[in-house]
Amino acid sequence: MNNSSIHRPASLYMSYDGMLEPLGQSQVIAYLTPLAKQFAVHIISFEKQNDSDRGEDMERLRKQLSDAGIIWHPQRYHKRPRVVSTVYDMLRAAISAAIIARFYRIKLCHARSLLSAVMLIPAIIVGGGRLIFDIRGFWTDERIEGGIIKANSTVERTLRWLERGVFRRADHIVTLTHASVERLRTDPRFGHPTAPITVIPTCADLVKFTPADTSESESPFVVGYVGQIGAWYRFDEMIELYKAFERRLPGARMLIINRSQQNEVRHALHKAGVSADRYEVVAATRADVPYHVRRMDVGVVLMIDAFSNFARAPTKLAEYLGCGIPCVGDPQVGDLQMILDGEQVGMTMSDHSPAERERAVDSILALRADPGLAARCVASAHRHFSLEDGVARYRAIYHGLLDDAA
Q1: In the chain, which residues have pLDDT < 50?
Q2: Which of 15, 271, 335, 382 could form a disulfide with 112 if both were Cys (CB 3.0 to 4.6 A apart)?
Q3: How do the domains of the chain map onto residue ranges?
Q4: Cα gap 123→154, rounded to integer Å
């Protein structure tokens, strides 16, 4: 055991996402690094083969985490055969977690989403630690609505049973949105959990996501989007919204930041009749994303109608606002209506009709004419999505659970 961790209470963080992935860097390590100053943090994560095969990157990250006082226990992620591989991964990780909990006297178990919570149950039984269930969204509903699992199937019934059990077992629940809290308390699918609930949205590093200098601005009006397409996102509607802007502002362009679906993005744009000189698809590194977001005049987040949207807090919203960029979104997605409409940093579309698109164009152009817009967007980002505030809330949860156990 590292001498520096003897006097720090030990915690174990379980993530089915990899730490070598951008999400692991921005939504796990960014939070745990400052927490490791007061807690002896262990991470179990599942690394995909194409990431773990990059030996130099693995060692670099291991050293980075070790220097921060974090012990990393990476597992290999298996994708096939579909259900069997998941069960295998979970059993292996559950055994590892139980061993770590016993050896390092783990006091806090922090689960990122449902499967991670299930994998931590043996560790809690063995070590007697407290469970933080960080739901990251309505996981089972997301998979049904995204067509990943079938409704009313044996898989769904099993997941619902596990979900209700974890909610009952949790000592503290973390959710991404205020809109999801009432559903967690009242909807029977979650088993009416009684544990305290804290809202911690997906935060952004607002030291990096900052407004543009005038030297970085570009003359064409740019409609921007960051992230994946398909599944829950209405990329076709985003294109139609761009076309509405382009009709009003000839020469307007569309900028899409997407690393792995560039062929699909280009195909969708071609199918919608957008010529190649009117858009740009960028496979930006994490370090380059702020620069490209600053090039935008408006960011977009349009999603399918789904129950799981109540629990969504798209990271791209924090990034847009941090860079002083207004956003167009859907009112049923998390807290978007409260933030965008309530704080005048964008607008939500009541539907996706042509008339509503025109209203969105009018609204955004009026906002862009307001000299106070960028400052208002930045203030909103810091109010809701500050990484420092997110870390402070996690720290309060950790200390609160330890005080209760004392």
Answers
A1: 1-3, 215-216
A2: 15
A3: 3-203+386-405, 214-385
A4: 27
pTM higher than the cut 0.70: yes
Task: Tell the CATH superfamily of the 3-203+386-405 domain.
Answer: Glycogen Phosphorylase B; (3.40.50.2000)
Does domain 214-385 fall under CATH 3.60.40.10? My reply is no
- Beta carbons of 341 and 222 less than 8 angstroms apart: no
The pLDDT tens digits for 149-204 are: 999 999 999 999 999 999 999 999 999 999 999 999 999 999 999 999 999 999 88
Integer angstrom CA distances of residue 372 from 215, 318, 382: 19, 18, 16
Q: Which distant-in-sequence residues (6+ apart) come within 8 Å of 261 by Cβ?
A: 228, 229, 230
Are 3-203+386-405 and 214-385 in the same CATH fold? Answer: yes
- What is the per-residue pLDDT for 205? 87
- The pLDDT score that the predictor gives to residue 260 is 83
